[in-house]
């Protein structure tokens, strides 16, 4: 996924929600009000939460998909609005973001459906939850919540209804009130998926049968409607490890061809194993990005190793190392935050180190999490204090070729040499997971005879680079320092003016 898909140099994707974002219906309105400030903070693209009606109504974060056509317009699941607001407020929010030059990325959830309107009698076999290829019962009749008729919408936008033939299986038998993993008779789990639990096709609810042509066509029909109905620019695709890779590849290709949009697309394939990602990733030619989950897990391991992690291996076997043009780098997200299913939260002390890597290196497109930028009140978690400064550094200083110093187990760093068309740009980053120390770095003659200061303020000592471009850069224990010129330090202290480009037009033509 090329950076120009995000319009700006040094793009920054912002996940604008966390799991416990308020459910009072003010989300879209508040985000619209924040658009100008986000632009000033350096945000160039916003990843929005799923906008469709969820099975839990106003309490649904959006991943418990009930009706993708209901964006907060129809009285279904006890409410008209979603957790985030109404359809009109959603569209107004997208317009406000566009007016401030921000790309909009919609979260797309295809894998499953929940909250069916009626049950159907279906012949099914129960599967071993540890190996879904093993059947642990004979075929028997169950009552499955597989009938989705959307009575509140009454056929508006689409007359398509879902029944058991649209699904491979489900997780509940209403007849016996028993939970389990049930494979419908005559069906099989999709094979081009992650191999955990034998096959990780099944995740939750009613699992879509991605081998059913009617299902595939309906997903395309919805995509055509959605991208025409609301002014979004790109998509984040949820739960890719549970969906046939070819289905995602074909859907993205069809959306780009049909709409004429550039349609930046970012996939979530939750695996820390780089070989699994490379074996299952959609085709490189499709320019689909992937979240760099292996890098996230390296951050997690380093932050919980009590100084015993090999910092020199931080990027080893990551997407940033193997496929940097497809990597979307991140520190935390809604699934990794405390109490969530994929909890692997990067704690406060390591967040500045991780965000320095994510925001200031050359590799990948960085994604900033709302829970880190604003805190997570539900759990009493404060914002990352350094994050706004790191965002400014990303926007103003992180330019030019990179020299990497990931050659030590404890103290590592990198240099960005700057570019002439970005005055005073360039920086030197030093970080350690152990005690206070310093690192001798050859930052090239680009910095020769210059005095550099720590933009984060962790180290007060100035560093004078010699005529050969070599300096000795201090760093506090368990910390990161980002050294810049004094001229850049002054710029960082001033309000950052919005980027010079105009507002974003939804439906941009392909380059």
Task: Please give a handful of descriptors for the protein shown.
511 residues, alpha/beta, TIM Barrel, Elongation Factor Tu (Ef-tu), domain 3, Immunoglobulin-like, 3 domains, 8-stranded parallel β-barrel, 7-stranded antiparallel beta sheet, 25 strands, elongated, disordered C terminus
Helical coverage, percent range: 10-25%
Q: What is the global morphology?
A: elongated
Q: What is the terminal-to-terminal distance?
A: 13 Å
Number of domains: 3
Assigned CATH superfamily of the largest domain: Glycosidases
The name of the CATH architecture of the largest domain is: Alpha-Beta Barrel
Within the CATH hierarchy, at the fold level, what is the topology of the largest domain?
TIM Barrel
Low-confidence stretches: 505-511
Side-by-side strand order of the widest sheet: 1-2-5-13-14-15-16-17
Rg computed from alpha carbons, rounded to a whole number of angstroms: 24 Å
């Amino acid at each position: 996924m090329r950076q120009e898909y995000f319009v700006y140099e040094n793009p920054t994707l912002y996940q604008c929600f966390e799991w416990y974002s308020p459910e009072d219906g003010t989300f879209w309105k508040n985000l619209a009000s924040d658009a100008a400030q986000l632009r000033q903070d350096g945000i160039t693209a916003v990843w929005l939460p799923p906008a469709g009606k969820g099975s839990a109504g106003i309490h649904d974060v959006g991943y418990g998909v009930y009706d993708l056509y209901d964006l907060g317009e129809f009285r279904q699941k006890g409410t008209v609005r979603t957790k985030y607001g109404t359809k009109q407020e959603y569209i107004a929010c997208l317009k406000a973001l566009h007016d401030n030059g921000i790309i909009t990325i919609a979260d797309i959830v295809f894998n499953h459906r929940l909250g069916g309107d009626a049950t159907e009698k279906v012949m099914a076999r129960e599967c071993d939850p540890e190996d879904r290829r093993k059947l642990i019962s004979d075929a028997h009749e169950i009552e499955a919540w597989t009938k989705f008729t959307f009575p509140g919408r009454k056929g508006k936008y689409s007359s398509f209804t879902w029944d058991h033939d649209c699904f491979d299986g489900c997780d509940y038998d209403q007849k016996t009130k028993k939970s389990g993993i049930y494979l419908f008779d005559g069906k099989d789990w999709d094979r081009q998926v992650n191999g955990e639990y034998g096959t990780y096709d099944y995740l939750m609810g009613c699992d879509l049968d991605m081998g059913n042509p009617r299902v595939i066509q309906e997903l395309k029909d919805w995509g055509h409607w959605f991208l025409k109905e609301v002014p979004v620019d790109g998509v984040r695709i949820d739960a890719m490890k549970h969906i046939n890779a070819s289905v995602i590849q074909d859907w993205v290709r069809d959306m780009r061809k049909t709409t004429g949009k550039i349609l930046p697309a970012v996939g979530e394939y939750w695996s820390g194993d780089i070989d699994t990602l490379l074996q299952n990733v959609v085709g490189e030619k499709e320019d689909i990005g992937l979240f760099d989950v292996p890098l996230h897990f390296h951050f997690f391991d380093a932050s919980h190793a009590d100084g015993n992690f090999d910092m020199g291996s931080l990027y080893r076997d990551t997407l940033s190392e193997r496929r940097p043009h497809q990597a979307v780098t991140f520190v935390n997200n809604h699934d990794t935050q405390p109490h969530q299913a994929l909890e692997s939260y990067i704690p406060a002390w390591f967040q500045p180190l991780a965000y320095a890597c994510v925001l200031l290196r050359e590799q990948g497109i960085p994604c900033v999490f709302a829970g880190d930028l604003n805190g997570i009140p539900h759990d009493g978690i404060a914002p990352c204090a350094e994050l706004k400064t790191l965002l400014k550094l990303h926007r103003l200083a992180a330019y030019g070729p990179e020299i990497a110093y990931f050659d030590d187990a404890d103290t590592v760093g990198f240099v960005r040499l700057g570019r002439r068309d970005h005055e005073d740009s360039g920086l030197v980053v030093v970080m350690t997971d152990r005690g206070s120390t310093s690192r001798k770095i050859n930052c090239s003659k680009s910095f020769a005879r210059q005095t550099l200061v720590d933009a984060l303020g962790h180290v007060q000592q100035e560093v004078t680079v010699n005529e050969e471009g070599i300096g000795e850069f201090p760093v506090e224990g368990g910390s990161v320092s980002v050294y810049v010129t004094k001229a850049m330090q002054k710029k960082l202290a001033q309000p950052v003016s919005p980027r010079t480009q105009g507002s974003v037009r939804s439906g941009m033509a392909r380059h």
